[in-house]
Design brief:
Elements: H1 5-24, H2 32-55, E1 58-67, E2 70-76, H3 79-83, H4 87-98, H5 101-106, E3 108-114, E4 118-120, H6 133-143, E5 151-155, E6 174-178, E7 187-195, E8 198-200, E9 204-214, E10 219-227, E11 230-239, E12 245-253, E13 258-266, E14 279-287, E15 291-297, H7 302-311, E16 317-323, E17 336-340, H8 347-355, E18 360-364, H9 370-374, E19 380-395, E20 415-424, E21 429-436, E22 439-451, E23 454-460, H10 464-475, H11 479-493, E24 501-503, E25 508-510, E26 515-521, E27 534-540, E28 546-550, E29 552-554, E30 557-562, E31 568-576, E32 581-590, H12 603-613, E33 618-619, H13 623-632, E34 639-648, H14 653-672
């Protein structure tokens, strides 16, 4: 605890007087005249010594501090600089600014490099694979929000990530220096490509491609999409200086199962300097979803035809309808069995379904024998009456087994079934609830069961054909209803066991891009578990080089980032530590240097940011002009501010001189007076 100065002075003074009094006056017989002088010298010396050694009080001193304006030099460290052969020119420009004595006298020069991120300059490599100019400018605003800090921006103006930097707000003036060719060369490029990640075998999937042209003449070219060297789509495209953008929409057919790689390409034209941006690669995973569905019925009903049409709207699904009396085939030939209006005639089929653990959908109605069902140990029973009830549908937003949107279920006509209370004896998910005369109940209308790899479902009511007709009248299309039936069939027909560990790894990545990976781990009750430790191991199939990276828990997923991986094919394994759970797969990193797809500097955007912030744009040969403008700009001025500095007494050397002098004088006087 710091002792106040006035207390320290009083205590030191009392102690010094007391010590001196004991030495010179207590039982002392010498002459008072000489003793008083020695007493004063001794008291003064001890007083100063006590202040220094024991108390060392501080004295506040007001000083004026001179603050020069900061001159931030932001240097583009991306590959596009070296690709445009401007790396040496940028280094020369930095040296010219940093070594200028007038600039050094006027400004506090601080240098930063930027690519993916902003860094203090250690060394420049011009190897960053992405450029984020907007983040570099925003970071300066945060660092020097309360200081005068003009920005010199040494770049080609080509940004690959981040928000549009020409619209970035800045509290400081920005002076871009343009590096790179400002001549607008003729160029064709694929600006953007959009495609779904998945498709089903024999189905069509859409591809959308945005093409851009830069030039002064009318030209024509040809756009194509290839798979394993075979042309799947081709179209001639014409461009002009005013009509310089085209959007291509096409549908490709999935003819082969598995991960398929495609190449989109626009043919180069005469005089085109950069052809690396004429090609983009993409991938689509093709899933074989061939499903055979068996419908066994005890009655003729419009529902049967409606179900067949909905299920077969997907070409990968086929439906066979048989009367229970006429069916002689093997149920193992089918992935899903739909049991329509069960009665005692289904006794043999039910036993076979249970014995072979077949997936099924049970649909009840007015002709259903519920006494028979109640005795079959299907985990559902109904305490029924012989009266018929109309059951309307209420959609359950909390249904989790598969993704299903509300297609207007509450607007559909009611289904008919025998009235009674339903009891379900095992875990289930309710997709639709019953509503009777406008009153919602907790009784299910459509439920699904998922136990290990076995799936089943029950629809408590007939008349679903009316739902398909109503959906068509509402949407002028059967699509929504058929999609609903298709999703239900796909879920029930699948024997795939629910995974406790999943991930979202893409099949294709660009070279040197940051690969963001999320993983989802669930406990044995399939609830998200935050207590696990996950890691991913990736191995290059050519070099056999292995990299292991742990996951971090962020929000509702485990996440990690893989950086600086070379192009090639990689096998990966995501594992839960201390548990026998893992998933394996493969991804490819393609050779694509986006920073090398620029042919010149982006002069227009750099001019906009300079004009927006009150700065001025310069070219690489105008550095001297830039420095002169900075020195003549009166808005960049040196400021002074008062600063209170606390100085300790021990730092004052003249006090030590006084102490030594006082003790020395006392010693000589005592020697002279013969007291030593």
């Amino acid at each position: 605890m710091q002792i106040p100065n006035y207390i320290a002075i009083i205590v030191a003074l009392i102690l010094s007087l007391s010590i001196s009094f004991l030495q010179y006056f207590y039982k002392e017989k010498y002459a008072v005249k000489n003793t008083v002088l020695l007493f004063c010298l001794r008291s003064f010396s001890i007083f100063l010594l006590l202040l220094l050694l024991l108390f060392n009080p501080t004295i506040n001193k007001v000083e004026l501090q001179t603050i020069k304006p900061v001159l931030s030099v932001l240097v583009d460290n991306s590959q596009s600089i070296s690709f445009l052969k401007e790396d040496k020119n940028i280094v020369s420009c930095i040296q010219s600014i940093k070594n200028d004595p007038e600039i050094e006298k006027r400004f506090d020069v601080i240098e930063f490099s930027f690519g993916n991120k902003l860094n203090k300059i250690d060394s420049l490599s011009f190897t960053d694979t992405q450029t984020n100019i907007s983040e570099a400018i925003s970071s300066q605003n945060q660092l020097y929000s309360n200081r005068i800090a003009p920005i010199i921006l040494l770049t080609d103006g080509n940004q690959t990530i981040g928000t549009a930097f020409e619209f970035t707000d800045s509290n400081q003036k920005i002076f871009p220096v343009v590096f790179g060719d400002t001549i607008q060369y003729t160029d064709l490029k694929i600006e953007q490509l959009n495609v779904n990640k998945f498709s089903y075998l024999k189905n069509k999937f859409p591809v959308e491609v945005l093409l851009n042209y830069q030039g002064k003449k009318r030209i024509s070219s040809q756009f194509s999409i290839y798979n394993n060297g075979t042309s799947l789509f081709s179209k001639k495209i014409q461009f002009s200086p005013t009509n310089n953008s085209k959007t291509i929409l096409t549908n490709l057919t999935s003819n082969k199962k598995g991960l398929q790689y495609y190449t989109a390409s626009i043919k180069e034209i005469k005089g085109e300097k950069n052809i690396k941006n004429n090609t983009k690669k993409f991938s689509v995973e093709v899933i074989d979803e061939q499903t055979k569905v068996l419908i066994l019925t005890s009655v003729l009903h419009p529902d049967l035809g409606s179900l067949k049409k909905s299920i077969e709207s997907n070409q990968q699904r086929s439906v066979d309808i048989f009367s229970i009396d006429q069916f002689k085939k093997e149920i193992n030939d089918y992935q899903l069995v739909i049991l329509y209006q069960l009665n005692k005639k289904f006794n043999k089929i039910i036993k076979e379904v249970k014995l072979k653990n077949k997936n099924y959908l049970l649909i009840s109605g007015t002709n259903t024998n519920w006494d028979f069902i109640n005795n079959q140990q299907l985990n559902i029973t109904k305490n029924h009456l012989n009266s018929i009830e109309n059951y309307e549908a209420i959609f359950n937003n909390s249904y989790l087994s598969f993704a299903q949107k509300d297609i207007g279920f509450n607007q559909f006509p009611p289904l008919k079934d025998k009235f009674g209370e339903i009891a379900i004896s095992k875990e289930h998910q309710t997709l639709l609830y019953q509503q009777i005369n406008g009153i919602k109940s907790n009784q299910p209308l459509l439920v699904t069961f998922d136990e290990n790899s076995h799936k089943s479902g029950v629809l408590f009511g007939e008349g679903i054909w009316k739902w398909r007709a109503t959906s068509f009248l509402s949407e002028n299309s059967f699509y929504n209803f058929d999609q609903f039936i298709g999703d239900l069939v796909q879920y029930l027909a699948s024997n795939k066991k629910r995974n406790r560990l999943d991930s979202n790894i893409e099949a294709l990545y660009s070279t040197n891009s940051n690969i963001n990976i999320s993983a989802f781990y669930r406990d044995k009750n399939y609830k998200f578990d935050t207590r696990a430790s996950l890691e991913i191991t990736v191995t290059n199939t050519d070099t056999k080089k292995t990299l292991t990276s742990p996951f971090r828990l962020i929000n509702d997923s485990y996440q990690t980032i893989l950086e600086n991986l070379n192009s090639g094919v990689y096998n990966y394994k995501i594992a839960v530590l201390d548990q026998p759970l893992n998933i394996k797969g493969q991804f490819t990193i393609k050779k694509e240097q986006i920073e090398q797809q620029f042919t010149n500097a982006n002069f227009n955007k750099l001019f906009k940011i300079a004009d927006r912030t009150g700065g001025e744009l310069y070219f690489k040969n105008e550095v001297t002009k830039l420095k002169k403008a900075l020195l003549n700009d009166k808005s960049f001025y040196t400021t002074q501010e008062k600063k209170i500095v606390a100085k300790q007494l021990i730092d004052w050397k003249w006090i030590l001189v006084l102490i030594i002098s006082s003790f020395t004088l006392e010693w000589f006087l005592r020697k002279y007076l013969g007291k030593i």
